[in-house]
Amino acid sequence: MSKKLVKRSPMAQFAIRTPYYVLTLGLAIIFMYPLLWTAIKSFAPQGGSIGQPEGWGVGNYETLFNYQAGIWVYLKNSLLITILCVVFTLVLSTLGGYAFARFSFPGKNLLFLLVLSILMVPYATLLLPLIIWLKNLHLAGAGAILGGRLGVAIVLAVFQLPFAVYMMRISFEAIPKEIEEAALIDGCGSLGALLRIMLYAVKPGLITVGIFAFLAAWNDFMVPLFLLNSGDNSPMPLAMVNMRQQVMGTIDYGVTEAGVVFLTVPCVILFLALQRHYVRGFMSGALKG
Amino acid sequence: MSHHSKLPKALALLAASAMMFTGLAACGDDKGGTDATDTPAASQTEEAPPVDTSDQTEAADEETTPAGTEDTEPASTEPGVDDGTELTMWTRAPLERQANMLVDAYNASHQNQVKLEIIPNDDMEAKVAAAVVSGGMPDLLAGDVVRLPYWVDQGFFTPITDKIQALPYYDDLAVGHIDAGKSNDGALHTVPFVTDISVMVWNKDLYEEAGLDPEKGPTTLQEFVDQAKAVADLNKEGVAGTYFGGDCGGCLVFTWFPFVWGNGSEVLSADGTESLMASDDAKAVYAAFRELAEYPNGLGAGTKEENGGTWTAPFAEGKIGVMPYPNTSATGARDAGINVGAAPIPGINSGFSTFLGGDAMGITSGSEKVDQAWNFLAWLTSEDAQLNVIAADAGVPARVSLLDNEFTAQDPLAVAMNSSVANGRTPVAIYFAEAFNASGSPWVQTFRAAVWGDADEVDALNDEITAVLQQ
Amino acid sequence: MSSAAATPVKPKKRLSIQRRNLRGWGYASPVAAVVLVFFVGPLVLMMYMSGTDWKMAGNQGTNFPDNFKDVVSQRQFWPSILFTLKYTVIATVLLIGLGLALAMLVQESSRWRGFLRTAFLIPTSVGLASASLLFYALYSPAVGPFKGILAKFGVDAILGTSWGALIGTVFLIVWRYTGFYMLLLLVGLQGISGDLYEAARIDGASSGQIFRKITFPLLRPSLALCIIMCVTGSLLAFDQFYILTKGAPDNSTITVVYLLYKLAFETKKHLGMGAALGVIILIALVLINIFQLKVLRGDEDE
Question: Between A96 and which of B160, B424, B436, C31 could a Cys-Cys bridge form, CB atoms 3.0 to 4.6 Å apart?
Answer without folding.
Answer: C31
